[in-house]
Design brief:
This protein is of the alpha/beta class. 38% of the residues lie in helices and 12% in strands. It has one domain: Metal-dependent hydrolases (TIM Barrel, Alpha-Beta Barrel), CATH 3.20.20.140. Strand 6 (159-161), helix 6 and strand 7 form a beta-alpha-beta unit.
Length: 280
């Protein structure tokens, strides 16, 4: 089974994706299941993990409704206000929907770089553990040292780093991102998505430009803790689904078939679906 571990859907008229403005060009339009279905069929992708794109509980409800009506959506990573004093109850309430497999605060957009380690957020992270929900970490390289503290503070919390922590590929920067990623990979509760790299490289990217970052993530996490994802349709800012899956398959072609199968689906099924009793 092949699983895209990271894709989005949105409807502009809902109005809560504040980052999605006309300046985003080609992705400033609605994206719904009918747009993605033929792409998945073309590449033999069986299921997806649908990920939030707005910091609102209303969007999470919208995604859960879409997911429940869409056969290819295996799980939803939603949003919750971790700083709300009532966060544990709200998280438990959201987790009653078995399609919800994780939560993702949009850390990259939070002004306080130390937000991840604020003591008042501890009850929310404990609630994720109690509810068997994954923590999707939408972070930038500067957040990785704080994410390491979080991983050590909550060793029972499954942490999924989105987009390889968005290395600054377009600027050709490799350190300290690479060292921080390697340190996090030493924590068994941390896994990472192979997604979003072409967006960080920018238009005009090349496979050679991406290769050191692919190689480092593979060396750090191994094929047993990497999850392939498209980040579609954000992906379309720099490439398209066809190009991204093609370069991903080439970068991983040297792996034995079972290890490639792990990256392209088995790991996502293990991390997102089995902990919540979801059918793969």
């Amino acid at each position: 089974m092949r699983i895209d571990s990271h894709q989005h859907l949105w409807r502009l008229a809902r109005g809560d994706c504040g980052w999605l403005t006309p300046e985003r060009g080609r992705i400033f339009r609605d994206y719904l299941p009918s747009d993605l279905a033929p792409i998945l069929a073309r590449h033999r992708i069986d299921r997806t993990i649908l990920v939030q794109a707005a910091p609102t509980a209303a969007e999470t409800c919208f995604l859960l409704q879409l997911g429940n009506a869409t056969a290819f959506v295996a799980g939803v990573v939603g949003w919750a206000d971790f700083a709300d004093p009532d966060a544990p109850r709200l998280i438990a309430q959201a987790a009653e929907n078995r399609l919800l497999v994780g939560l993702r605060p949009m850390v990259q957009d939070i002004p306080d770089d130390d937000w991840l380690v604020r003591p008042e957020l501890v009850p929310a992270f404990r609630a994720l553990i109690t509810q068997d929900l994954v923590f999707d970490a939408l972070v930038l390289p500067r957040h990785l040292s704080r994410l390491l503290v979080l991983a050590d503070r909550h060793p029972d919390l499954t942490i999924v780093i989105d987009h390889g922590a968005k290395p600054q590929i377009g600027e050709g920067l490799f350190q300290p991102w690479a060292a921080d990623v390697a340190a996090l990979a030493q924590r068994p509760n941390v896994v990472c998505k192979l997604s979003g790299l072409v967006t960080e490289a920018g238009p005009g990217w090349s496979a050679a430009q991406l290769e050191p970052y692919f190689a480092h993530l593979l060396a750090a996490f191994g094929p047993g803790r990497l999850l392939w994802g498209s980040d579609w349709p954000v992906l379309d800012l720099a490439a398209d689904y066809d190009a991204w899956i093609r370069v991903s398959e080439r970068q991983l072609a040297h792996l034995p078939l079972p290890e490639r199968a792990a990256v392209f689906g088995d790991n996502a099924a293990r991390i997102y679906l089995r902990s919540r009793g979801r059918a793969c």
